[in-house]
Specification:
The complex is a heterodimer of chains A (546) and B (421). Chain A is α/β, with parallel strands linked by helices. Chain A has 4 domains: 126 residues, Rossmann fold (3-Layer(aba) Sandwich), CATH 3.40.50; 174 residues, FAD/NAD(P)-binding domain, CATH 3.50.50; 145 residues, 3-Layer(bba) Sandwich (FAD/NAD(P)-binding domain), CATH 3.50.50.60; 61 residues, 2-Layer Sandwich (Alpha-Beta Plaits), CATH 3.30.70. Chain A has 16 helices and 28 strands. By secondary structure, chain B is an alpha/beta fold. In chain B, the strands form 6 sheets. Chain B has a 5-stranded parallel β-sheet. Chain B has a 5-stranded parallel β-sheet with strand order 11-18-12-13-14. In chain B, strands 4-5-8 form a 3-stranded antiparallel β-sheet. Chain B is globular and about 65 Å long. Classes of the chains: A alpha/beta (546), B alpha/beta (421).
């Protein structure tokens, strides 16, 4: 059946005087399939859209081309208009004759406008409807991890009425790195107790994930506890697996770690233990800290160092020296903490090159060129707290590949887009929180937790997800099951499935697909079609002006 | 549940307010998005792309997507030129009175065709787009510039407007709204560099602020410096102007990064330019920044210590007096251009809003959070903070904080969980 194309040209209230609209309309009317051409001045206003809806119905149009302003401006309104008139919203093609034509050039541009319009008409003939469908979602959430970020996420999600399962690989909660740091008065013990009492929260310890399948709203997670495997459904998954810390060798002399340990080189956590256990008679007289020497990204270590230096000063009254390159104060409250630390008498020695750490008479000696003194400073410490840096926990890599989410250059989880969607992963329905995303300070962890509550609520609370059906689809006849698309899909949306003919073919999940088009571009068999950007649709546009 | 408790007032349509509004609207809340200005986007929308041959991850390009999404969202009602006047009630049932200044152009009808601006006889034009890439893209009439305010009977713009969008008799109007919660996202003020008189800002044409340079780049697309044709060969950035000093006991979080990104951009476009950055502590932490810093650190001369005095020589060169820390003596260096890396300051009009809403102010001038840091909560139940009105943040942190504020609203007002499959 011949298409019935309606062409609507809007002159934007005479805002495009370098186009001859009469000539444009006449050219369009001669093209095959064009049933009607209408000129308008107010297409995007209420009266304009009402006229268009009745035009589509009266003329029994089955496709619409609009030549007007940039699709950025009003395309969403025009699509709604088509739906109101009973046409699928995808059967619209726009020619941007304002920003991309009239306003971009001086002088007469009717020819270019006509080209753009012919391209849009060439394309619209081939457009296919894209239906929408609602998928019901599971409102249960899985939180992976058992530290501060995991527990607080679970408590907050439970607070908005979402059932949450916490899955921790260790036998007890709250034992990971950074879990001993002062959290500005936040009491971890009572948080864990609250989570254990909460009827909306299931806690599984000594549990691991065996496999993950599915799409947002409908994940199936197989979990292994005590040698038995159980599969459960979740609507969303939050990875809150935290981080681990390592003492960084930084200064070359830290190589002989054993000798240094006996000489009093400790970690922040060991220092915290000594602060609570050591009797006053055994307290060290001089304590040194190394900071911001091995890695620029030292927000976490900076906070720990400032807090602990303050604690050493106030509990032991020791002389405290911090050897550092810079103090990273770009997190909330850190500048104040830094000031307080200095006012207490903690000395910061700024050095541009790493200090030399040696052992002298069983004591550790730090020697550095202090930029303020312009001279070498050598301090023999009773205790030296080494620089400690966060690294991803071991399971990060395993979980990353299991979930199909990328890792960044430091081995932490890579966010989808830190600027726009702070806690989203590339896989829709999977989120990251806190230290597993990178070197996070406590304020940013708290913000992450709140952000993930927002994101999970937005995804699951409506009870269903509306998606486009087969906007991107694989033709099973053409698919040669080469797995290229599965490998490149950033959203883990493609799977190999046995089709009718007994062969395997790739199938795209509408729920998981983000319509990025990478698979359609790369498919060597040209088996994947991205509706709106199909080869024949693009060729038709080229041929229209060719 | 009452209808009003399903709607939220967001004050301020900068990037964090928009982030909150979009999250709330997506979760089913009706949002009144209040903006004092004629356009939305706040500071974030005024920055240029700082990419060299690699992306500087400055966030400038992603802001406009969010703005458009907010304007087009059916559950967000945008009120430009609007301020809050009164506030009363209980969490879940607040009454607010807002005042909206007339724009004289009907936003529903303006199609941004530009005919009114073309025909307007005043110079500068009384009716125009607030800026070329304004969101929403709607013209605005400045009554102070309009001939009608001078008693003349000019009606040229109204007569030519093809959609009859211009209404001279629009008045300031007030409206009472019922809302369940309030998100305050009023943003920050850029530190006024004139307050540091010894740095010569406002007196010497070669002394700019970082923001001046950003706006220049956004407007011109190229680096064009004051003083004409000669490209500056020696440029200095001075960090912590209005941060980490007596009146500002905080780090502004953004200045080291924007200074280094601008420095890299200047070097990328004019490789012979010598760039010096004077600093206290370099803030190079943050995901993704390490790669950028590694790429460019050898191109930039870093000097510890922040100069406190700039003099202009007769030749126009700027003499910067600084302490050579390791030598323990004062030194002078000359530059063609000095950029002051001004920081984030609390808005001075925050006090007015604090009085209306009953909020506490922290002693640094930002809104105070309760109970602890990193929170969106205020001393008033049902009012939450988002973005830089609570303390300095960069764009990603502001977006995240805005989304975080939305979660507190959801917890307060409840999000009905629909039974799923």
């Amino acid at each position: 059946m011949e298409a019935r194309i309606g062409v609507l040209i809007c002159d934007c209230g005479q805002g495009m005087q370098n186009i001859d609209f009469g000539a444009l309309a006449r050219q369009a009317a001669d093209l095959p399939g064009v049933t009607s051409v209408n000129l308008s001045s107010d297409l995007c206003l209420d009266e304009g859209t009402k006229k268009m809806v009745s035009l589509i119905k009266d003329e029994n149009l089955d496709r619409v081309v609009i030549a007007a302003c940039s699709p950025d401006m009003k395309e969403h309104i025009f699509r709604d208009m088509l739906e109101k008139a009973g046409l699928n919203g995808n059967l619209l093609s726009m020619a941007n004759i304002r920003e991309q034509c009239s306003w971009a050039h001086d002088g007469e541009v009717t020819d270019k406008a006509a080209d753009l319009l012919r391209m849009a008409i060439g394309r619209v003939r081939l457009l296919r409807p894209v239906e929408h469908r609602e998928f019901p979602v599971s409102t249960e959430v899985l939180v992976v991890g058992g530290g501060f970020s995991a527990i607080s996420t679970a408590l907050r999600l439970s607070g908005v009425g979402l059932r949450t399962t916490v899955l921790e690989s260790e036998p007890v909660l709250g034992e990971g790195a950074g879990e001993k740091e002062d959290l500005h008065g936040l009491d971890r013990g009572s948080m864990i107790a609250a989570a254990e009492r909460d009827g909306n929260i299931d806690i599984l310890t000594c549990a691991r994930i065996a496999s993950v399948e599915g799409a947002p709203g409908d994940f199936t997670v197989t979990m292994r506890t005590d040698g038995t495997e159980t599969a459960r459904k979740f609507g969303a998954i939050v990875l809150a697996t935290g981080f681990r810390t390592e003492l960084t060798p930084g200064p070359d002399a830290l190589i002989d770690a054993r000798e240094l340990c006996s000489a009093g080189v400790v970690s922040q956590e060991q220092l915290l233990g000594m602060l609570s256990n050591l009797g006053l008679e055994a307290r060290p007289a001089i304590v040194g800290f190394l900071l911001d020497l091995a890695d620029e990204n030292s927000r976490f270590t900076t906070l720990a160092t400032l807090n602990n230096a303050l604690a050493v000063k106030s509990r032991w009254g020791s002389e405290v020296y911090v050897f550092c390159k810079d103090v990273k104060v770009d997190s909330e409250g850190t500048e104040r903490l830094y000031r307080e630390t200095r006012e207490c008498g903690v000395v910061f020695l700024k050095c541009d090159s790493a200090p030399e750490v040696t052992v002298d008479n069983g004591k550790v000696r730090v020697e550095a060129r202090d930029v303020f003194l312009g001279d070498d400073a050598a301090i023999t410490c009773d205790l030296l707290v080494a620089e400690e840096l966060p690294f991803p926990v071991q399971e990060t890599e395993v979980l990353g590949s299991m979930f199909g989410v990328r890792l960044d250059s430091g081995g932490f989880y890579q966010d989808e887009n830190v600027h726009l969607y702070p806690v989203d992963s590339e896989r829709k329905g999977v989120f990251f929180v806190g230290g597993c995303r990178g070197n996070w300070d406590i304020v940013r962890v708290l913000t992450d937790v709140s952000s993930v509550v927002t994101s999970v609520c937005g995804l699951l609370c409506p009870g269903s997800i509306q998606v486009d059906v087969e906007k991107v689809r694989v033709d099973p006849q053409k698919c040669v099951a080469c797995l290229t698309c599965i490998r490149v899909c950033p959203h883990s949306a493609i799977q190999l499935v046995r089709v009718d003919s007994g062969r395997d073919a790739a199938v795209i999940s509408d729920l998981a697909c983000d319509a990025c088009g990478v698979c359609a571009a790369i498919c060597p068999a040209k088996a994947i079609e991205f509706e709106g950007y199909r080869d024949d649709e693009i060729l038709a546009q080229i041929e229209a002006v060719g | 549940m009452k209808a009003e408790s399903r709607s939220v007032l967001v004050i301020g349509a900068g990037i964090s307010g928009i982030s909150s509004a979009l999250e709330l609207a997506s979760a089913g809340f009706g949002v009144h998005l209040l903006e004092r200005d004629a356009v939305i986007g706040g500071h974030a929308a005024s920055f240029p792309c700082k990419a060299t041959n690699i992306c500087a991850e400055c966030s400038a390009c992603v802001v406009s997507d969010k703005l458009r999404e907010a304007v087009q969202h059916p559950r967000i009602r945008l009120l430009t030129g609007s301020t809050l006047k009164e506030f009363r009630g209980e969490p879940g049932d607040f009454r607010v009175r807002i005042a909206q200044e007339p724009r004289y152009v009907d936003g529903e009808r303006c199609i941004a065709c530009g005919l009114c601006t073309d025909i307007c006889p005043t110079d500068p034009k009384a009716i125009c787009l607030p800026q070329a890439d304004a969101v929403p893209l709607i013209h605005v009439l400045d009554e102070k510039l309009c001939l009608r305010s001078k008693g003349k009977e000019c009606e040229l713009c109204r007569d030519i407007c093809p959609t009859k969008a211009i209404e001279f008799n629009r008045k300031r109007r007030e409206e009472e709204l019922s809302v369940g919660a309030v998100v305050v996202a009023t943003g920050f003020e850029v530190f006024d560099a004139k307050k540091k008189g010894s740095l010569g800002y406002g007196r010497y044409p070669g002394v700019l602020t970082g923001l001046d340079l950003e706006h220049l780049l956004r407007r011109e697309g190229v680096l064009r410096f004051p003083g004409g044709d000669k490209e500056p060969a020696r440029i200095a950035f001075i960090q912590c102007v209005g941060s980490r000093d007596e009146g500002h006991p905080y780090c502004s979080h953004v200045c080291c990064k924007y200074a280094m990104k601008l420095a890299a951009l200047i070097r990328h476009r004019s490789p012979d330019t010598l760039v010096t950055i004077f600093y206290i502590d370099l803030q190079t932490a943050g995901k993704g920044f390490a790669r950028f810093f590694d790429e460019y650190k050898s191109d930039i001369r870093f000097v510890r210590g922040v100069p406190v005095e700039i003099m202009q020589a007769a030749s126009g060169e700027l003499e910067v007096k600084f302490e050579d820390i390791s030598q323990g003596r004062v030194r002078r260096d000359t530059f063609d251009l000095v950029v002051l890396s001004v920081g984030i300051s609390p808005r001075t009009d925050s006090w007015d809003l604090a009085r209306i809403l009953g909020l506490d102010m922290a002693d640094d001038g930002f809104f105070d959070t309760a109970p602890s840091i990193g929170s969106n909560d205020t001393s008033v139940s049902g009012i939450f903070l988002a973005g830089t009105c609570q303390g300095p943040k960069d764009i990603p942190d502001s977006v995240a904080h805005g989304a975080a504020a939305a979660s507190r609203v959801m917890e307060l007002l409840g999000v009905p969980v629909q039974a799923g499959g």
